[in-house]
Amino acid sequence: MLAQDGFASIKPITDEDIASFKEQAVRDIYDLNSYISMMCNKAASANRKKFARNMAIKLFYSDSATVQISRADKSIKTEKISTYFNNLICTKYSNVNITFYEVYISKDFKPGPNGKYYGTATYTQKFEVSSNGKEYQTNHPDITEKNVQLVIEPITYQDGNIQTYWVLKLGDINVTNTE
Amino acid sequence: MSFKYTVLTMFAVICLCSCSDKAVKNFSLTFIVTEKIGNDKNEKYPDFYAKMCTPITTGKNIEYNYVPGAILVKRLDIENCTVKLSIVADEKKSNVSNLNYRRNMVTKFFDENTIGYQLCLESGSRYEKKESILSYVSSLGKKNRVFYYSANPLNDMCNGEIIYDNIDTLRNAIANYLFSNSATNVFVIVNPESGKEQITKTIEDTSTHKKDTTSQSGEVKHSNTFDNPAKHIVKEIRKSNSDRQIDANNIEEYFAKIADKTIPYNMKFGLKTGIQKYFTSPRAVVIKQINGSEVGRDNIKDYVEGLSNTHRGIKIVRKKYYSDKINIIYIEENSGF
């Protein structure tokens, strides 16, 4: 039996599953924070940073997912996550600290027309930089509220039998508010 | 993996563009192996050596061949072996501009001594036959670089370095490194995950052996030049060996220690490698659950790598076996924050 979208038969998502995916989404966002911290860590080896980058990219539905960054002049820049992570790894600052907190599901999962489920999580990001041990003097907003799109999508893989299962991925990250 | 290749490709292109008029003049390349590579003349050496060492020709005139100064294959399955090196000079060529020529490494295969085989250079325009090979190697430089290769690595990293699983990528990585570090000793450790203790011993032996041979021949004037870098490598690997002392007795303990925040990341290499023995392959499936609902899947190799960063507590819910090893494992994750 094939579903309308062409995937092999898959167990429908229950309310319990949705609840678990919500929890997983929050965990994934904290994981993303861990990986970003590692990418910014000047003491970490280049290879470990690359590992963190790869693991972070795996959290997203695609490496073409985008992230919005608020700039010093209040403008918002949109970058691919792969570019964003590369920039973090190569940051010019001697110390960068990015912390996520107040992570919550701001928009419940709802089925989309393509059979996937979409939701939104919101988190607050604190961005601190310093150079040579001194806090970097800038007008750059250091606290930003961001929305991250959440997608529950069916993945098919073949291991003797064709199996389809639901997986949660992060999507585009947008700035909603800056301080 | 794709990122690794992308970076290497970009790096190769940058090198090609910026360094097309330069040449890697000489270096030594040593393979440290943990496997048997053949005992008689009729036995072919494995594809790895063939692919690593087959020259790539372009038909253009070349000023310098991008070849190593010497290549030594050290077998770890025979102790107290004698290793001989030899190099055959090649004529000068001109107009170096092709990246492939930087990968022109070895053309000849010898089996002149008791350990079985050496891989030797046919090219090397800087080498004069009157000079002792050890003297030549000694003069190559003071820098060392260790690369890791495994056809089927259990982990992507070893001692903080990438374990290459593709010959061409490894060759390019070596060539690109040498392009900006023209005088160096390069070690390729083959299958590092299966013989790290032995590798340490071998590097020590290699150093000792070179000293002994030098004193017998009396031809080497600067033997200390070669000894110092070798000691540097031994020190590095000894350090990693001390890291590997962390072990676990069962799979639950492995997971717990990999996720343990108090254990430094660098000390988890042995754990991440060791846990693989319970699984059919690094691609064994991890099914992640929250409150009994499946929330995602991963392969065990990536999963333990992630766990070493995220520090989540986990509980094994169920295991499915194939030939006495775990093929699928169901894991309930606790909150890690």
How would you sum up this structure in a few lines?
The complex is a heterodimer of chains A (179) and B (337). Chain A contains three helices and seven strands.
What does this structure look like?
The complex is a heterodimer of chains A (179) and B (337). Chain A has 179 residues and is α+β, with helices and mostly antiparallel strands. Chain A is built from 3 helices and 7 strands, in the order H-H-E-E-H-E-E-E-E-E. In chain A, helix 1 packs antiparallel against helix 2 and helix 2 packs antiparallel against helix 3. Chain A is globular, with a radius of gyration of 18 Å. The N terminus of chain A is likely disordered. By secondary structure, chain B is an alpha/beta fold. Helix content of chain B is 34%, strand content 20%. Chain B is built from 9 helices and 12 strands. Chain B has a 6-stranded mixed sheet, sandwiched between helices. A 4-stranded mixed sheet of chain B has the order 10-9-12-11. In chain B, helix 1 crosses helix 4 and helix 5 packs antiparallel against helix 6. Chain B starts with a helix and ends with a strand. The N terminus of chain B is likely disordered. The interface between A and B is medium-sized, with 31 and 30 residues.
